[in-house]
Each structure stands twice: as C-alpha cells, then as structure tokens.
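Q: Predict the bound structure with aspartic acid.
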Amino acid sequence: MIDPPIWALILHGGAKEIAPEQEEANRRGCLAALVAGQQILKAGGHALDAAEAVLRALENDPTFNAGFGSVPNADGQVEMDAALMDGKTLAVGAVAGIQGVRHPVSVARALLPEMPTLLIGAGARRFAEQSDSPLYGAELCDPAEMLSPQQAASEAAESAGHDTVGCVALDQYGDLVAGTSTGGLNGTLPGRVGDSPLPGCGFYADNTLGGVALSGHGEAISRLMLAGRIMHELERSDVQSAVSAALNHLNRLTDTDKTDAGAIAIDAGGNVGWDHRSPHFAVAYATSQHSPQVFLKR
Ligand code: ASP
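A: Predicted complex:
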C-alpha cells in the first residue's frame, strides 16, 4: 500500500500576554489563517504558497502585530519587517523597516528569486513599487493606514504588548518554507530592526532538517541566534526537544524582563514542535495526520 502524502503546517500569532477578552480573536484569527494554508497543502499545493497565504491572512487581521494593525514606533510610525525562506534552495527574501504596504510578506516573496536577500526602508518600499504585480500583491498604501483604530489611540497601543506572526509549512514534495511578519516592538527607536527578517535569528528553513519561526524580544532572539540553535538541535534531537532546549538559552541573558520568546518548528519528517517563554503563545497547526488544533499557551 502507498503511504498518503505527508504535509504539515504550523503558525503562530505571537509570544505575548493575551487578555481574556482577546482570547477568542486570537483563536479565530489563527484558525482562519491555518485554513487558508491547509487548503493549499491538502490540494497538493506548494509550501511557499501556503506560507504566504497564512501570513497574508494574519497580516490582514488587526488582532496581530503584523501588516494592518502593526504597532507604532516612538515617532508614531509603522515600520514592518518580514521574511520568507525556501528550505530547498536556501533562498531568503526579507524586508526591514518597510512602510506603506499592506503585505510585507509578499514583498519578501518577490525578493526570494533576487540576488539581494534583505532590503530596508525606502529601498524596500521602492522594490515593492516595482514588484506590486497581482502575482505578488504587496498592496501599496498610505503608511498611516497600517495603524488599526485601536492602535492609533495611544493608550491601547501601550497595552498591546508585542507579537509577530510566523509560519512553517512542509508540502508533499518535501519542501519546507519558514516565514515571519511583524510590526516590531511598540515604541522602539525609529529604524530599529529585530530578529524577524534575520535568517538564523527569527527564522530558518532547510529541507534536510526542518524549518523554524520565532516571536518575542528580537534583541534577545538575535543575540542568542535562536533559529540557528534550533536547527543545530534538530541534527540530534526530536523537534519538540530541539525547540525547548534552544529556548532554555534565554536563561543566560540577565535582562529577564526582555527575554520573552516563542518558537514553532516542523522537522523534515513532518513532526511539529512548539514552545514558549512568555505568558501566552498563540499557535495553530494541522498535518496530514492531525486535524486543526489551536492553543494559547503550552
Ligand atoms: N520579534 C519581533 C521583534 O523583535 C517582535 C515580536 O515577535 O513580538 O521585532
């Protein structure tokens, strides 16, 4: 008998504190995004299309700090980071500090086949203008449109905490893709870039091992190269142990109030793992063997 094709999809809506009145919106948003990607994988589609569809759905949902509804920096402006990595070719497409696009992840996708892997600020926006074809759909807009009404009211922004969205997808052809999208941390210095567009920090994908995506304090994640650590752990342990072992390195940092993080991962065999060092971590996954599940903490 021929084994059914294996696919797997995991996403997160951020390592953060989720107020009771926000729980339902987080569950609903994660599940809707999961369905968008799951449909593609189930129908024999590619991991890259599934990951982009998931991240675009999360970017559209103001519950999450990515795309529409991103948090403002200290100047009250939205600057967004996003990335996609293809585990087959090890190609990376990433943007940082981009303004005035509804879908930073689609700009990252348009960059995947290009020579530069990371474009920032005005250069990223200029690239988005050139590549805003219906195929990629960056959807140019006024930068001020990216603040949700709640975030435009600064009091709500203060309590919005932080979160990034992320996704890892494995398709039935064995291709793994990891992606991130974020508005960064609330009220940071203009021009600040966290882990989310940096391979080996906020994400990584390699078909021979697995794929990972992270959320949390970008400075802590970058200083510890957490995505890279998870990949190295995957060489010798199962995916769940790999994620948890890497996150334990957060204990080495002394600034304990700024070391929240969460990670999702899929190994090359389609097994999923996730863990967090934060009050909550909105996660949803489905595989060819498991029906959709959503969690707000472990
Ligand atoms: N990691 C993101 C950053 O530091 C923010 C987050 O995940 O909440 O920019």
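A: The chain is about 30% helix and 25% strand.
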